[in-house]
Specification:
The protein has three helices and 26 strands. The strands form five sheets. A 16-stranded antiparallel beta barrel has the order 1-5-6-7-8-9-10-13-14-17-18-21-22-24-25-26. The radius of gyration is 23 Å and the shape is globular. The protein has a single domain, classed as Porin (Beta Barrel), CATH 2.40.160. By secondary structure, it is mainly beta.
C-alpha cells in the first residue's frame, strides 16, 4: 500500500500541477478564434484495406493466429515421428485480410487551457485466437496539449514501442520478437525540456493479448496461463521513464522500465498438502532500452538495443521461473538481450528495405527452478537459446495503393535449458523462410 500511495500521489501532483500551471499560463482565446476553430471539431476517419498472402517453409510459433499466423515469432522446433521425419517441416500457405483497419482522429474545443485530441482505432484481428475477423479495440487515447506539456490517457502503444523508431517491415509482426510490442491502458506525461529534448513518464497496465504469464487460478506452481490479474494484484503499475532527443535528421533515446507481478494469491501449506495459505511473493523486472534513427536524403537507418527481464507481455521470448517448495515459493525473471537494425530507402514510389534482428536467452541467473512461466523457454526441457532474422523487402506505391513483397528468413537455435532457464550444451538450429506478398489500399 505504501508503494501504491507514493505512485498515485506523485502522478496526481504532477497532473494537478501541470493543469494548474499551464492553465494560468495560457491566455483565453478571442471570440473570433473560437468560431474559426469550431468548424474543425469532430472526427476524421482514415485507415486501410490490407490483404496478406504468405508461404512458410515449415511450421512456426506465432502470437496470433495460433497456427501459421500473421504475428510470426520463430520457427517451431524439430518434432520427429517414429521414422525420424520432422513433422514440423511441413510448409503452409495462408491468406488473410484481418489486419484491415479503421482509425478515427478526434479534435474538439480546448480544456484546462490545453488543445484536446484523441484517437479511436479498431481492426478485424479479433482479441483472442479463434475469433479472427471480429472487430476489436486497438487504440482509445485522449490527449491534453499545452505549449511544453502533454498529458495522455487511454489505450495506446507501450512506451517501449517507440512510434518514431520501429521496424518498417512489411510483415505485420513489426519485428517481433526483437522489438517490444504491446498496446496498454496507461497515463503518460510528455514534458519538453528544450526544443529537441523530451522526458516521458508513464504508468501502465495490461490487457488483451499483451499480458503476463502466471499460475492458473493464482495458485503457486499451478500450470501456466496468462492474464492481466498478475500485474493488477501487484497493485503498483508498470512504471516507465524515457529521455528522447529529436531533430529533423537525428533521433536518440534511452528508457528504463520497471514491472512487478504477484503470480499467486495462495500456495499449498506444505508440499503435497490439500490445504493452502495466502501467498504474497512478487517478481520484479527491469528493462533498459536505447534506440537511434538517422534520416538522410536517400536512406533512413534505425537501430535498437533492449536488455530486459520478463518481456512475455511484449510478445518477446522469456518470462520468469519459480523456485523452492510450498509454502516458500520465490520467483526470478528470465533476462533476454535483443538487437535490431534496419535500412530503408526514402523514395515515394519504390522503397527498398532490409531488416536484421537477433535476440538471446540469458536465463534467470539462479538454478533450481521448479516451474516455468515463459514463452519459448522451459527449465529442464527443449528451449530457445537465440533467434535470428534477416528480411529484405520492396514496396511499390502509386497514390493510395501499395504492393509489397518480403522474404523473411528466421532461424531459431534450440537446446535443453538448465534449471536456470539458460540453454547450454548441444543445440540445433531450424529455419523458416516466409515469402510474403501484400496489397494495401489506404483511405
Amino acid at each position: 500500500m505504501k508503494k501504491l500511495f507514493i505512485s498515485l500521489t506523485v502522478f496526481t501532483l504532477l497532473a494537478v500541477g501541470v493543469v494548474k500551471s499551464q492553465t494560468i499560463a495560457t491566455a483565453p482565446a478571442k471570440p473570433a478564434e473560437k468560431k474559426a476553430e469550431a468548424s474543425t471539431f469532430g472526427i476524421k476517419f482514415s485507415g486501410f484495406i490490407r490483404n496478406d498472402v504468405f508461404y512458410d517453409s515449415r511450421q512456426v510459433v506465432s502470437a496470433r493466429p495460433a497456427a501459421q499466423g500473421e504475428l510470426l515469432l520463430y520457427p517451431a522446433n524439430v518434432l520427429n515421428d517414429l521414422n525420424g521425419n520432422d513433422i514440423n517441416a511441413a510448409p503452409s500457405l495462408t491468406m488473410l485480410s484481418i489486419t484491415s483497419r479503421l482509425t478515427g482522429t478526434v479534435t474538439g474545443p480546448d480544456a484546462f487551457g490545453a488543445k484536446t485530441s484523441g484517437i479511436l482505432e479498431a481492426e478485424f484481428f479479433g482479441n483472442a485466437n479463434g475469433n479472427e475477423n471480429v472487430l476489436r479495440l486497438r487504440h482509445a487515447y485522449a490527449k491534453l496539449d499545452w505549449p511544453t506539456t502533454q498529458l495522455a490517457f487511454g489505450q495506446y502503444w507501450h512506451p517501449l514501442f517507440v512510434t518514431d523508431c520501429f521496424p518498417g517491415v512489411i510483415s505485420f509482426n513489426t519485428g517481433m520478437p526483437f522489438q517490444p510490442f504491446a498496446r496498454n491502458p496507461q497515463i503518460r506525461l510528455t514534458q519538453k525540456l528544450g526544443s529537441e529534448v523530451n522526458l516521458i513518464l508513464a504508468a501502465v497496465s495490461q490487457i488483451e493479448a499483451f499480458v503476463s504469464p502466471g499460475p492458473t487460478g493464482n495458485v503457486a506452481l499451478a500450470a501456466s496461463t496468462t492474464g492481466s490479474g498478475f500485474i493488477a494484484n501487484a497493485v503498483v503499475p508498470n512504471l516507465h521513464a524515457q529521455l528522447q532527443y529529436k531533430s529533423k535528421s537525428l533521433l536518440l533515446g534511452a528508457a528504463i522500465d520497471f514491472k512487478e507481478l504477484r503470480p499467486a494469491l495462495s500456495v499449498a501449506s506444505a508440499p503435497g498438502a490439500t490445504t493452502s495459505v495466502s501467498a504474497s511473493e512478487l517478481v520484479s523486472s527491469t528493462t533498459f532500452e536505447a534506440y537511434a534513427k538517422v534520416t538522410t536524403q536517400d536512406i533512413v537507418a534505425k537501430a535498437e538495443f533492449v536488455s530486459g527481464q520478463n518481456l512475455y507481455d511484449h510478445l518477446m521470448i522469456g518470462g520468469y521461473l519459480a523456485y523452492g517448495a510450498a509454502p516458500n515459493i520465490t520467483y526470478k525473471p528470465i533476462s533476454v538481450s535483443s538487437y535490431w537494425i534496419e535500412l530503408a530507402g526514402t523514395g515515394k514510389s519504390v522503397i527498398p528495405g532490409l531488416f536484421f534482428g537477433y535476440t538471446k536467452n540469458n536465463g534467470a541467473g539462479a538454478t533450481g527452478a521448479v516451474a516455468t512461466y515463459a514463452r519459448g523457454i522451459t527449465a529442464g526441457k527443449a528451449s530457445l537459446d537465440n533467434v535470428l532474422r534477416v528480411a529484405p523487402r520492396m514496396e511499390f506505391v502509386s497514390g493510395k495503393f501499395k504492393f509489397g513483397g518480403e522474404i523473411e528468413i528466421t532461424s531459431g537455435t534450440y537446446g535443453t535449458a538448465g534449471t536456470d532457464g539458460k540453454v547450454t550444451g548441444t543445440t540445433n538450429s531450424v529455419t523458416n523462410t516466409r515469402l510474403l506478398f501484400i496489397t494495401s489500399y489506404s483511405f
